[in-house]
Structure formats: C-alpha cells, structure tokens
Amino acid sequence: MRKPVIAGNWKLYKTKQEALSLVEELAPLVADAGQVEIVVAPVFTVLPSLVPAVAGTQINLAAQDVFWEEEGAYTGEVSSRMLLDAGASYVIIGHSERREYFGETDETVNKKIKAALNGPLIPIFCIGETLAAREAGETFKVLERQVKGGLAGIGAAQFAPVIIAYEPVWAIGTGKTATDAQAQEAHAFIRGVVSELYGAAAAGKVRILYGGSVKPENVKGLMACSDIDGALVGGASLKAASFASIVNFGQ
Question: Is residue 9 part of an annotated ligand binding site?
C-alpha cells in the first residue's frame, strides 16, 4: 500500500510571518490526516523559521531546489547539507518552471537528484510534457526521456526514496487539469518506465504524484485513479482551507 503524499509548492510567495501564519492555521486542519504524508515547500529563507512551527504536527518541510555541489564558489546556490541544516527533509527537483526559466536539463536534474539522495533528502522529481509535445503525440516520448535522464546512474537501492511528480506543463497555473483518464494514462506509463529500470517491485512501491491546477474540486477524482499516489499542489496550497481540503480528500 503506497502512502499518499500531498505536497504544497509555495513558489515565490510568503514571507516568514506569512508562512508562519499559514502553517499555524493549517496544522489543526490536518491534525487527523495521519494516512497522508504532508509536505510544504516554502522559499529557502523561510525554512528555519518553520521548523518549530511544524514540530509535533503532520507537516514536513521541503525546499524548492538544490545545487549539486556541497560547497564551493557557486554564488547564490544552496546545497543539500545546507537544506538539511535549515530543516528540510524533502526537495523539489526539476519543476517545469526551473526547466523553462532557469535552464534546467535532464542532466542537471540528474545531478541534483544524486546530490539530494546523498544528503540525504527525499527528492520530489518533476517531469511533464508541454502542450506542443502532447498535441504532437510525444507525451510518452518526453516522459520516458525525462525519467531515464533524471535517474541515470542511480541504482535501485538509491532510487527507493524518490517520489516522482507528473506535471503536464500546460496544466500548471492555467486552471486546466488533465482529465482523470489522461493523468492515469501518464502515471501508468511512468510506472512502466520505472519497472523497466528497476523491476516490478520498485515500480509497485514508487509514489507518483499529479500536479497541475489541483484543487479541492478535482482531487478526489484524481486520487481515485490506481496509479496516482498524491498531488503536488501550487496555488491551492497557499491558503490553509483549500490545501487542508486537498489533504483531507479521503475524509
């Protein structure tokens, strides 16, 4: 039985006080959600301030990115060791916004996943096709390339903690959501690629999240799909009530 993961990617929102207020409001709303793994990903500067706020709650902390070196002359970067020191236990890697705006490639994503695993941090490894790729019938081709490229050189034992997040780029922040059938089809394909790389047992254990305009209104349908193990939530994670409603989808 794969434990669902509901992760909130706060992106470039929330100062320290705003983040504290959100967590304080959220914690009691998800206090009974022990059947779900709850993760929130604030900006780097907020992480240490949230450690005492989430202590004793169901909420875990993630960073939104990581660099692949532990230290050195890399102005502006943050290493896995530093993220652990700041209180993170998860890290989002390869989000489509990082790929689109900051030049992330399958190669750099691969290096970051390896750095996170060595941290050790739990990577939330993001993949997904653009609208152009989907309309050209290349969805599976893109997903296979991203999965295999991102996981290159990572053995089965190392891979075990990795969480994969499928986010069709055309559905992120647009209000559009893949239909339940579209999402399930993509998730099943991704699980098949993992099976090819690591075997059926590993594929049966890996958790694959759906991301892309997840809201309280559509989460139940998505979570009813056999290969969808949770959600990577954007805008709806910025308000306690809506994010709690998604976390509590099964109640």
Answer: yes
Q: Which of 97, 129, 167, 187 is an active site residue?
A: 167
187 is catalytic: no
Q: Tell whether pTM > 0.85.
A: yes
Per the annotation, does 204 bind a ligand? no
10 appears as a binding residue in the annotation: yes
Domain count, the chain: 1
Residue 135: which pLDDT band, with cuts at 50, 70 and 90? confident
pLDDT tens across 174-202, in order? 777 789 999 999 999 999 999 999 999 99
Closest CA to 130 of 193, 212, 190: 212
Residues 219-247 pLDDT 10s: 999 999 999 999 999 999 999 999 999 99
Q: Which of 37, 95, 104, 129 is catalytic?
A: 95
Residue 235, marked binder: yes
Q: Is 167 considered catalytic here?
A: yes
**What whole-number distance in Å separates Cα of residue 199 and Cα of residue 153?**
15
111 known ligand binder: no
Domain hosting 100: range is: 5-248
